[in-house]
């Protein structure tokens, strides 16, 4: 596995043909690494023009996250997404945002806030 982008470059890479939209979350991993919380999100990219078929987004030094699952809802197509940097230098992902504004909203669901990001491909 190769890290192909970090931090702001991850956001730049995941626009246009490499968007997460219409992708499918294949897995979530939550673990400690050197006493810091890390979350990885494995995504199958479905856009035909994408260079990648699957990616892993690694959130390092996680400050907050919230995910909800119920068996009656299909796991997990990405129909809307927010991915941007916050003013304080952190990064924000919501896989179930309330709206399309590139800002945090308390009604966003399935979100991660972290200090660092990595984009990994096989």
Biggest sheet: strands, sense, closure? 7 strands, antiparallel
Radius of gyration: 14 Å
What fraction of residues sit in β-strands? Answer: over 45%
In round numbers, the mean pLDDT is 92
Walk me through what this model shows:
This protein is mainly β. The chain has one domain (2-121). It is 5% helix and 49% strand. The protein has one helix at residues 8-13; strands spanning 2-6, 24-33, 36-44, 54-66, 82-85, 91-96, 109-121. Strands 1, 2, 3, 4, 5, 6 and 7 form a seven-stranded antiparallel sheet that branches. A hairpin with a 2-residue loop joins strand 2 (24-33) and strand 3. The protein is globular.
Task: Give me the secondary-structure topology.
Blueprint: E1 2-6, H1 8-13, E2 24-33, E3 36-44, E4 54-66, E5 82-85, E6 91-96, E7 109-121
Antiparallel strand pairs: 1-7, 2-3, 3-4, 4-7, 5-6, 6-7
Characterize this entry briefly.
With 122 residues, this protein is mainly beta.
What brief labels describe this structure?
122 residues, mainly beta, 7-stranded antiparallel beta sheet, 7 strands, 49% strand
